Amino acid sequence: VADPAMKVKLSVLLLSLVLLVSTLGGVAQTCANGDDTCRANIDTQKQASDPRRTITIDNLSKYRADIHYDDGRFGKIIQTVTSKGGSPNPISTFVGHRFFVTMHGVREGLVDPTTDEQIFFTVGGDELNDKFIIPKEATTSKTRCKDRYPVCKKEAARGECTNNPGWMIVNCCQSCEEKEGYGHLIDSEVRCTRERLNATKAAFDVGSLDDLFTRWATEEAFVQYEPNVISSPGKTHGAEHDGPWILTFDSFVDDEEIEALLKGAEYGGFERSTDQGNIIASSGEKEKVVSTSRTSSNAWCRRECEIMPGVKRVSNRIEEITGIPQGNYESFQILKYEVGEFYRRHHDSSGKNKNMSGHRILTVFLYLNDVEEGGETAFTDLGISVKPKKGRALIWPSVLNDDPDSWDSRTYHEARAVVKGTKYAANHWIHQYDFRNANVWGCSGSFA
């Protein structure tokens, strides 16, 4: 540098940097060749100053288990480990972090049978790589009414036992017993009856189904939605197929409403689609399992999503045309299928339905975009295929006109794989009895 003043400035800056490094890191320590004790001391100092750790968790118990990070509230699931020796990938974490273990797919904690205390693991500072063991004896608690989380008392104190009773009774039973006297409701057979929840009014009587679809096909009020009867008993009303009712309204949702539904999906976020497994606890919990028959992603339209004006308009319109109150509807499920993704042959209800809300009696399926190729909804036993079309509603029943408490086995269907493009869709499933209140009280298996 030619300028003397600039040389001075650079010298001062260099000195400042040297002092800063010395202050933050001290003088670097070196070891003579072969001085293993010196090197071990350096490693110990580095380890003590670095809070990062790697842990693994081996599962020796008979239960498939979910590992949750304890965030001070209800935990965040991070891994699933198989039973009897399963060990997942290492977990990158920090000193002081804590983890707890539950049965897979539900929140029922695994406990030490000698103390009935839930199993927790806390990351210490001694080892960079640590291993924790879920013991062979780990089991579920014998105490039916207990709190699963330390935060339960606080949640009960702020009124969540009445605001969100199903989830709280199952997960914070002890606190809800102390606050509201709800402990006996941990038994789903006590908690989940139509009489107790005032859900005894059926949506469909004998003949209601035929009456509804006939009105859609014939009355002037529905012409604006462009009805097209694809299948009907006796091939009536221009249907090409003789069979159960299948109908489309080809102009049912507009661009603004579609945008609202897609925007609403962002609140919850798309996740790999799951199915409900078996009921695995007397509390009524059903195991949540990753679906092998469908590879789509879905988001549930709840809270912020379902109060969006565009979303409300669509639900209100469905209520208006069906005459069935929205309390019987499951929240909108918003779906995304990428190329190659599908949903294999399935039925929207089941032969022996013992749910408090009864069968899903109707599916209202909305196509939110055009798909370049593939993505059809195919009724596999009927030889019927419906192509996605933006704004179209496809509606079909899952029950019989002459016995709406019995399913119609003819309406098996599948979502064919998308060949080109992306498919977006949304659906309301409509139940024979009230669903929304049943869901709030934890009587649908999902505790949403």
Automatic annotation (TrEMBL):
Pfam families attached to this UniProt entry: 2OG-FeII_Oxy_3
UniProt signal peptide: 1-28
Any one GO MF annotation of this record: L-ascorbic acid binding
PROSITE patterns in the record: FE2OG_OXY
GO cellular component, one term: endoplasmic reticulum
InterPro entries xrefs: Oxoglu/Fe-dep_dioxygenase_dom, P4HA-like, Pro_4_hyd_alph, Pro_4_hyd_alph_FE2OG_OXY
Domain spans labelled Fe2OG dioxygenase: 328-432
Cofactor(s) essential for the protein: L-ascorbate
Superkingdom as given in the UniProt entry: Eukaryota
Keyword line: Dioxygenase, Iron, Metal-binding, Oxidoreductase, Signal
Name the record gives this protein: Fe2OG dioxygenase domain-containing protein
